[in-house]
Amino acid sequence: MDVINRYVTIKSHVDGAPQESDFELKATPLALSLDPGSNEVIVKNLYVSIDPYQINRMKSYSSSQKNSDFAVGIIPGEAIDTYGVGKVVASGNPEFDKGDIVAGLLNWGEYTVIKASGMLNKLNHMGFPLSYHVGILGFSGLTAYAGFFEVCKPKKGDKVFVSAASGSVGNLVGQFAKLFGCYVVGCAGSKEKVALLKEKLGFDDAFNYREETDLKSTLKRYFPNGIDIYFDNVGGEMQEAVIDNMNINGKVAVCGVISEYTDNEKRAAPRMIDVVYKRIKIQGFLAGDYLNNFADFLSTTCDHLRTGKIQPLEDISDGVESAPSAFISLFRGQNIGKKIVKIAEE
Amino acid sequence: MDVINRYVTIKSHVDGAPQESDFELKATPLALSLDPGSNEVIVKNLYVSIDPYQINRMKSYSSSQKNSDFAVGIIPGEAIDTYGVGKVVASGNPEFDKGDIVAGLLNWGEYTVIKASGMLNKLNHMGFPLSYHVGILGFSGLTAYAGFFEVCKPKKGDKVFVSAASGSVGNLVGQFAKLFGCYVVGCAGSKEKVALLKEKLGFDDAFNYREETDLKSTLKRYFPNGIDIYFDNVGGEMQEAVIDNMNINGKVAVCGVISEYTDNEKRAAPRMIDVVYKRIKIQGFLAGDYLNNFADFLSTTCDHLRTGKIQPLEDISDGVESAPSAFISLFRGQNIGKKIVKIAEE
Question: What ipTM did this prediction achieve?
Answer without folding.
Answer: 0.95
